[in-house]
TrEMBL record:
Residues 21-170 form the Nudix hydrolase domain. The lineage of its organism: Bacteria, Candidatus Portnoyibacteriota. This is Nudix hydrolase domain-containing protein. It comes from the Bacteria. Gene3D superfamilies: Nucleoside Triphosphate Pyrophosphohydrolase. SUPFAM superfamilies: Nudix. It holds the Pfam family NUDIX. InterPro entries: NUDIX_hydrolase-like_dom_sf, NUDIX_hydrolase_dom.
Length: 179
């Protein structure tokens, strides 16, 4: 269930996620001056998504956010963004269906824990300058309104991802952050 957040999670919170078999990840909602959100096309899967990535052991949320933006869209694009001191707007999780568990392992304090799902830390950042992201991990980008985003969501085959993206768009719309 998506929850609104007001405080930043600590590194220990991410370790608790891992102990529960959940891979913690940051979802980066980048909003422009027109109140549209940035989506990237993952060429290998042919899926439009909000930029996101895992949170490595020992890394805090804001550091993981900055690292993902730099790795996926470039340093210049990162510099065009305003990142609030507390960017977290929501959390959510996906538990994988039993048959799709691929034996992935999470390492937690020297122990190995089977991965059963993902925990998403949804963050909001604002584009200050009109700089295009580099196509490093995404083959295309587009800025979408709430309605355009909902249409994109319907093309996502995975039920969990579809539900999470739909909820994120609703939280942003209800908060007046996207039109």
């Amino acid at each position: 269930m998506m929850q609104e957040e007001t405080i930043l999670p600590a590194i220990d919170d991410f370790n608790q996620d891992r102990q529960a078999g959940l891979r913690p990840g940051v979802v980066i909602c980048i909003i422009n001056k027109e109140l549209k959100i940035l989506l990237g096309l993952k060429q290998e899967y042919q899926i439009w998504e909000i930029p996101q990535g895992g949170i490595p052991m020992g890394e805090d949320l804001v550091s993981a956010l900055k690292k993902e933006v730099t790795e996926e869209m470039g340093e210049r694009f990162l510099k065009s963004l305003f990142i609030p001191e507390k960017p977290l707007v929501a959390t959510d999780k996906i538990i994988f269906p039993e048959q799709s568990l691929g034996g992935q392992i999470l390492k937690v304090g020297g122990r190995e824990v089977p991965m059963v799902g993902k925990k998403y830390y949804v963050c909001l950042v604002v584009q200050r300058e009109n700089i295009e992201p580099e196509k490093i991990e995404y083959s295309e980008f587009k800025w979408v309104s709430f309605d355009e985003g909902r249409k994109v969501v319907e093309t996502i085959p995975q039920k969990g991802k579809k539900r999470v993206l739909k909820k994120i768009l609703e939280v942003l719309r209800d908060g007046g952050l996207i039109k």
